[in-house]
């Protein structure tokens, strides 16, 4: 039974990154659709129709630019707090196309700051449309995710989504298959068979050629890589000595891609400055914020980039032993470790306390 909301309607806002599959099937070791598998929903489950915010601004920071575009939104109902749940699609991902193509010139409108301004613009629009001028709003996000949408998973039959982390771990831990190298070869064989491929073109030249494609059907690899060059860094490298993946892809391997894919001006010093500028803008490790909870899993490599200790009594960190990326955002299972269950309970309690405050 949904918890009562004491005469007010709560709005939950989730930013979604909906992407299409792209060829080749892999980039930086990740198969299309990721490794988490399709949502566990009954076959034939109807999905909500897409809705559109028709008047999103192309550039929120240029007062002379009056161009607008339509941005995708998906509305469902949150049960626990009797809330309206709104899922807004991130610009440049899924079907939210603010520009004709993904040329370097057009990618200049792709940034986290523009995306946050999209959210602010949409919140104002939604409050007016739904007549909710003073209602409380809770926003959710996990990582900077690149996900396939649920409708696409259901309608396309989720090709390849039987390759989950459990599947891969099962093969690698099956000692009857032979040496670690043979088990890894078995993983590769499964992936190739699943995607109907006879060989895997792993050359750097081929990868760069694919990433230079500027049409929208090429997928989201180009968009996300651009954001790492222009804002974030966050590269997965082999520079650290205590890791099992060889030393063949140092940091410079990713930095060179910024130049080879987009523009020679995106050299290492420019990328470093872009990252410093991002940290200055958002506050870096010294971020000042309230009414926020930061869950992180101990075996999620990205937790090193997150907040793992409380900033203050109103900015709480939850460190969950034995869990991976965004584990707390997936549906609960009987097999979940106790710390994960406790984390979900804590998050729910914090949301409830925020809703009881007057400010």
Automatic annotation (TrEMBL):
<keyword id="KW-0732">Signal</keyword>
<keyword id="KW-0645">Protease</keyword>
<feature type="signal peptide">
    <location>
        <begin position="1"/>
        <end position="21"/>
    </location>
</feature>
<keyword id="KW-0378">Hydrolase</keyword>
<dbReference type="InterPro" id="IPR029058">
    <property type="entry name" value="AB_hydrolase_fold"/>
</dbReference>
<comment type="similarity">
    <text>Belongs to the peptidase S28 family.</text>
</comment>
<keyword id="KW-0325">Glycoprotein</keyword>
<dbReference type="Pfam" id="PF05577">
    <property type="entry name" value="Peptidase_S28"/>
</dbReference>
<dbReference type="InterPro" id="IPR008758">
    <property type="entry name" value="Peptidase_S28"/>
</dbReference>
<protein>
    <submittedName>
        <fullName>TSSP-like protein</fullName>
    </submittedName>
</protein>
């Amino acid at each position: 039974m949904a918890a009562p909301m004491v005469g007010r309607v709560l709005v939950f806002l989730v930013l979604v990154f909906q992407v299409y599959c792209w060829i080749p099937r892999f980039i930086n070791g990740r198969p299309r659709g990721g490794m988490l598998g399709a949502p566990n929903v009954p076959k034939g489950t109807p999905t909500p129709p897409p809705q559109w915010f028709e008047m999103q601004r192309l550039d929120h920071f240029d007062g002379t630019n009056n161009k607008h575009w339509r941005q995708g939104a998906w509305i469902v109902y949150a049960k626990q707090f009797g809330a309206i749940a709104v899922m807004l699609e991130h610009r440049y991902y899924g079907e939210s196309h603010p520009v004709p193509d993904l040329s370097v010139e057009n990618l200049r409108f792709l940034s986290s700051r523009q995306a946050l301004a999209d959210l602010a613009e949409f919140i104002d629009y939604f409050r007016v449309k739904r007549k909710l001028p003073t209602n409380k709003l809770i926003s959710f996000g996990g990582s900077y995710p690149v996900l396939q949408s649920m409708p696409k998973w259901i309608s396309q039959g989720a090709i390849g989504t039987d390759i989950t982390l459990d599947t891969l771990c099962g093969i690698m831990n099956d000692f009857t298959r032979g040496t670690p190298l043979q088990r890894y070869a078995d993983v590769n064989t499964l992936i190739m068979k699943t995607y109907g491929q006879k060989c895997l073109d792993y050359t750097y030249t081929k990868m760069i050629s694919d990433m230079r494609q500027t049409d929208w059907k090429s997928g989201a690899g180009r968009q996300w890589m651009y954001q790492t060059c222009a804002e974030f860094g966050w590269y997965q490298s082999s520079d650290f000595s205590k890791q099992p993946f060889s030393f063949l892809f140092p940091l410079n391997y990713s930095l060179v891609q910024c130049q080879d894919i987009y523009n020679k001006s995106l050299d290492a010093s420019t990328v470093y400055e872009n990252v410093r500028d991002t940290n200055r803008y958002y506050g870096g490790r010294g971020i000042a914020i309230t009414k926020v909870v930061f869950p992180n899993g101990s075996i999620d490599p990205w937790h090193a980039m997150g907040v793992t200790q409380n900033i203050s009594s109103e900015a709480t960190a939850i460190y969950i032993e034995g869990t991976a990326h965004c584990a707390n955002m997936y549906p609960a299972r009987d097999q979940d470790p106790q710390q994960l269950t406790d984390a979900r309970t804590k998050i729910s309690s914090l949301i409830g306390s925020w809703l009881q405050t007057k400010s």
